[in-house]
What does this fold into?
Amino acid sequence: MKNYILLFCLFVFGQSLIFSQQSKKINGPIIEGYGATYEIANPDIETEIDTEMKVIFDVDKSSEDKSDVNKYIEVAARFLNMHARAGMKPEQLKAAITIHAGAAQDVLTNETYKAKFGVDNPNFGLINALTAAGVDIIVCGQSAKKNNMSRENINPNVKIALSATTALIQFQNKGYQFVKY
It folds into this structure.
């Protein structure tokens, strides 16, 4: 009987180890430090790794806690990381983000953000990493003007469009799929 109990305990312990390893988030490989994802073993819908994926994310919300990274901007890092780990090459992954309304403040320079909110801009490094990986980060010019933002106080890696709507239409005309967050 003791052997059965010992075997049962070892089985439960082994299963918990397997489960804990499967639920561990993985960083990278394209954007290190941001966009950690979970490994999905044997998904029912296989990732088509011989195609190109083009997506434009639309972000209009910011984090309530101004010291937290905007999770909606970080979605682009997750998109790149999980598809690269699934076997896609970075050149097959095209991503852009339109940022407007309440999220516009997230593209401010660190100095301007800190003066406004009292903390470093938690999105500054994320935006720089995304643009280094080829992601177009686009702020709505209308939102920027409404919030008294200028080229001087916007992260230099961020592009300014006439409006988020303009950028969304133009990117969709180039085959980018619209995803709203």
About this structure: The first strand starts at residue 53 and ends at 59. Helices lie at 2-22, 71-85, 110-117, 124-132, 141-146, 164-173. Residues 24-37+52-180 form a domain with the Hypothetical Protein Ychn; Chain: A, fold (CATH 3.40.1260.10).
